[in-house]
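Write out the 3D structure for:
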Amino acid sequence: MDQQTDYRFMQMALELASRATIETSPNPKVGCVIVRNAQVIGQGWTQPVGQAHAEVQALRDAQSNGHDVRGATAYVTLEPCSHFGRTPPCANALREAGIARVVAAMQDANPQVAGRGLAILHDAGVRVECGNFPELAAQARELNIGFFKRMETGRPWVRMKVAASVDGVTALANGQSQWITAPTARQDGHTWRARADAILTGIGTVLADDPALNVRGIATPRQPQKIIIDSTLRIAINAKVLQGGAIVICAVADNEKQKQLEHAGVEVVCLPGEGAQSGRVNLPALLQELGRRQVNELHVEAGAILNGALISQACVDELLIYLAPKLLGSGAGLFALPQLSHVDQAQKLIFHDVSQVGDDLRILARLA
């Protein structure tokens, strides 16, 4: 087929990938289109974790409609997997079905795959093409940005959400903060919560606001894991955030308090810092631990001190900022960052998306 036709079918596969739900995590969201004689005969996308991947879904779809896939082309947004995990390898399924050509948007970053899926197909005589369309590969990566971050670094993609007035105030001097942004923006914020595998906050926020830190007001198939940084285990056993289970990360052991929390169904993990950070949680180590637990996307909703610490220690990938069209004057700020002596020392950001959400402005900015 010509390049234009390949492009069109890969776009279709990407649209299918976008239908995959958050329940696919820790697996990536993938779409697959099977084509013969320029006609789609099968299509599929990744099912909830433990169920069929996109390629198998597309093969089943073709079979259920009476189509023979032998000699057909499969367009897939990510290299077919080559390893046995919760399901058998998709590369084997395509090979055994008699697919003649596989076009992949990009190679899988998973070290267990990383070209092996394409090699299995190539060695079986299947014509293999990968990465022909850089802009579509970028879309496939963006759709699975947390998966790729974890595969490449061992850490999740960290998105920090903040809400403030235009002059950067998150709460009044008396502590009042509800509500700075309008209902539409707050609902949008819950949509971002829902897509994350875990939500992180600090003990300061828990003591000040007693948040539930769950997804509310929108339909979601599952609640993200709740994680609280609490260096000296000051959290109350009846804190709302602990309801339904949570992980508390401390830096200073307290065996008696830990037993109480564990009896209440809370997991306690001690990750002490070193040197100047002694007595505080080791934040980079925390991200490595969450990566080990297969967290692809971590959503942070915390106060200025923890926000600043995470940014200062290069633990944040993206800021999700909601700005309300208000001026509040003096009050709490967004980030407690070290004082600079020169403008060139500033942490640089790249605006990824700027949109109006209801009355408020939503900015997605990535740390450069």
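The two ends are 39 Å apart (CA to CA).
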